[in-house]
User: Fold this.
Amino acid sequence: MLPDIFFSPPVFAALSDGRPVLALESTVIAHGLPAPLNIDTALGMESEAREAGVVPATIGVVAGRPTVGMTLEEIEHFGRESATVRKLSRRDIGPCVAAGGDGATTVGATMALAHLGGVEVFATGGIGGVHRGAHLSWDVSGDLRELSRTPVLVVCAGAKSILDIRATYEHLETLGVPVVGYQCDEFPAFYTPKSGIRLDHTADSPEAVAKMWTAHRKFGGGGGMLVVTPPPEVGIDAQALNAAIDAAFIEAELKGVAGQGVTPYLLSRVTELTEGKSREANIALLKNNAGVGARIAKAIADLAEGLEG
Ligand code: PSU
Ligand code: MN
Assistant:
């Protein structure tokens, strides 16, 4: 463990004893959902982990301190004062630490800090990926490259159709990232279990995922693994959702939204256009993923203990 990483006491104790820890990201708190729902959801995800016997570690840069295990006050601060909290991908971590600023970590940046802190399993909602029109804009999320280089297992509900999901899946193959369906055989499209993309690898239990992860760490080339799990059913109108996504995409183009602003813009417009339903789905799947991630973290810790003992 690096002295420069700030751990909460429960996370530090769990890591020292080899007990399972689940990493959670902070961008979804500061820039993915509005207050106070973002705070409730972040705490709800932490509760899911605890109920499964796993210590949650929400990750972010707090006043320049790379933190693995944000406190309740820090989570509330990120949720309430989100306008003053930067969005950090890997390249932004150093500048934010140097400036002593507050930064919410994306999937990629959360993986980077989780790995430095010694946390192997991370649960989130959806990953960033290849944007629609990326053949012209080159807008491909840093999350994908991070998955290829950093050995952290990421549990998510696939990718949102604000992205080109098929191109995202192809790119994960190019980068050598295994995508494992947890109790599903299709890549989920975040709001719906269906994308039409069949997965090559599936696992039925946390133990099966733990076995794959252990083998991937030995022989898979040193990068991460993506475990996808379908979202809980909340009865969302797929047609209305697709229309909202198409409209948001065109608006973003017309307004010249670019760079790091693209994903938050699309997320908030789609939520506005679909009103409550997409948000309900979002919160349900975040909590579900935290539960799945926690059970996987536990199975990995049990497997490691068995191998040692
Ligand atoms: N997709 C979602 N919700 C989110 C994000 C993505 O459905 O909150 C966030 C995650 O933190 C992800 C980031 O890592 O957006 C990707 O941003 P970008 O496309 O700028 O790399
Ligand atoms: Mn981007």
